[in-house]
Amino acid sequence: ELIDLYARRKKSKGIAFDQDTFEQEQFENDFEYILTLDQNRAVKDIKEDMESDRPMDRLICGDVGYGKTEVALRAAFKAVMSGYQVALLAPTTILSRQHYYTFFNRMDKYGVKVKLLNRFISTKETNQTLEGLKRGDVDIVVGTHKLLSNSIKYHKLGLLIVDEEQRFGVTHKEKIKHIKVNVDSITLTAT
Questions:
Q1: Checking phi first, is residue 34 left (phi over 0); if not, alpha (psi -120 to 50) or beta?
Q2: Which residues are CB-neighbours of 86 under 8 A, at least 6 positions away?
Q3: pTM here?
Q4: DSSP notation for 147-170
Q5: What is the per-residue pLDDT across 170-187, written as a single tens digit (0 to 9) for each?
């Protein structure tokens, strides 16, 4: 099944995201720190992959606090500026909430709609977010395994970011693999 899945991924045509915009440059200049050489290389490589029409599958590995999230933020912003949605999957409610606030705080001034889905979000808010994803009103959704539910329908998903994939179970990993067939993906890990 894995061989078949990766063969389909290899044959499928991916999304060729737009080249960087003025807004992308502004967004990146908002970062209050200077990127490390490794971060710069990772951002450059990811952008090249995103601009090609082959589905991207990148692993970003680094210790806690070394800037993996900033690399993911830049990729997510690029996807949204190209008219696509982004899903960020985290293994715990605490981590999903942390990512949500980071993404919201960095992107809100650019009009990017970021929503959170986890067990602490009310049914009403969850339903509104699901509807917004389907209509295309939500640009980025951050959440736990709820993002792997069959009830989630995206208007135009272009990028999947998975944080600490090794902390998900076998069933969840299978669903992640199937989502990754036609969209670009980034896996973040500190291990």
A1: beta
A2: 76, 79, 80, 139, 140, 141, 157, 158, 159, 160, 161
A3: 0.91
A4: GGSTT---SSEEEEEEESGGGS-H
A5: 566 667 776 766 889 999
